[in-house]
Design goal:
The longest helix is centred in the first third of the chain and has 10 residues, at about 1-10. The protein is built from seven helices and seven strands. It has helices at about 1-10, 15-20, 35-40, 50-55, 115, 120-125, 210-215; strands at about 25, 85, 135, 140-145, 150, 155, 165-170. About 15% of the residues lie in helices and about 5% in strands. About 10% of the residues are buried. It is of the alpha+beta class and about 220 residues long. It is globular. The N and C termini lie far apart (about 45 Å). A three-stranded antiparallel sheet has the order 4-5-6, with no helix packed on it. Strands 1-2 form a two-stranded parallel ribbon. Strands 3-7 form a two-stranded antiparallel ribbon. The chain has a domain at about 1-45 and about 70-130.
């Protein structure tokens, strides 16, 4: 139903193609800013107060000012929100739109599939479920007559010394059905500490798309 609604809205001009597609926004930008990192770098200070040692940043001997920040989740409708830049290459993208009525995901109902299945996503400018979700990475494991462990019918001395097996599937892998175990909506709360991590994207496309199947065995002999 959501898929048909978005397509109809775009056709009627109620939402534009550009608003459906959205921009790619770096939600970690403020946490990774050079000014904030320099300000919070305790290694450069001769004196560190009790408040600076913890995450509260307020008086440790009173609860009057210790209330957590009030977070407000994005209310943009599905199909109209800016997409969030991934935290690193092939990281699970976070959910940029309102999820009211879509959660929890249960066996009989997964609203995410209405827009994000590959055959539907282009028509509503949604992020398509990647090929890695239509693959099985679990090798057939057994034991040979001599007691050695086998992977995909081959004996292995070290079970960890084994290239990742990719078995492509014609349908969504059931292990990937519960989208919210990796993808989550975001609230407009600044991270408690600065983030010195900088993702090393190979190109701008990797900020919003997955190429996991292409590189899953990169560097593995």
């Amino acid at each position: 139903m959501l898929k048909q609604s978005l397509i109809a809205m775009a056709a009627l001009g109620l939402i534009s193609v550009s608003s459906v597609a959205g921009n790619v926004v770096n939600i970690n930008d403020t946490a990774s800013s050079a000014d904030r990192i320099a300000k919070e770098d305790l290694g450069t200070k001769k004196v560190i107060t009790e408040e600076e040692l913890g995450l509260r940043k307020v008086d440790l001997y009173s609860e009057d000012t210790a209330a957590p920040s009030e977070g407000k989740f994005t209310r943009a409708a599905a199909g109209t929100a800016d997409r969030f830049e991934r935290a690193y290459t092939n990281a699970p993208p976070m959910i940029p739109h309102d999820v009211e009525g879509m959660l929890p995901i249960v066996a009989s109902n997964n609203a995410c599939l209405g827009c994000h299945m590959p055959e539907v996503a282009p028509s509503v400018k949604a992020t398509a479920i990647p090929a890695s979700h239509f693959a099985n990475f679990r090798p057939a494991t057994g034991m040979a007559a001599d007691g050695k462990i086998t992977k995909e019918g081959k004996e292995v001395d070290n079970t960890g010394d084994f290239k990742t097996i990719v078995k492509k599937m014609s349908k969504l892998n059931p292990a990937r059905f519960n989208c919210s175990q990796c993808h989550a909506p975001q609230a407009n709360i600044d991270p408690l500490v600065a983030n010195t991590f900088t993702p090393d994207f190979g190109n701008d496309e990797q900020k919003s798309k997955s190429n996991l199947l292409d590189v899953i065995n990169a560097g593995v002999k």
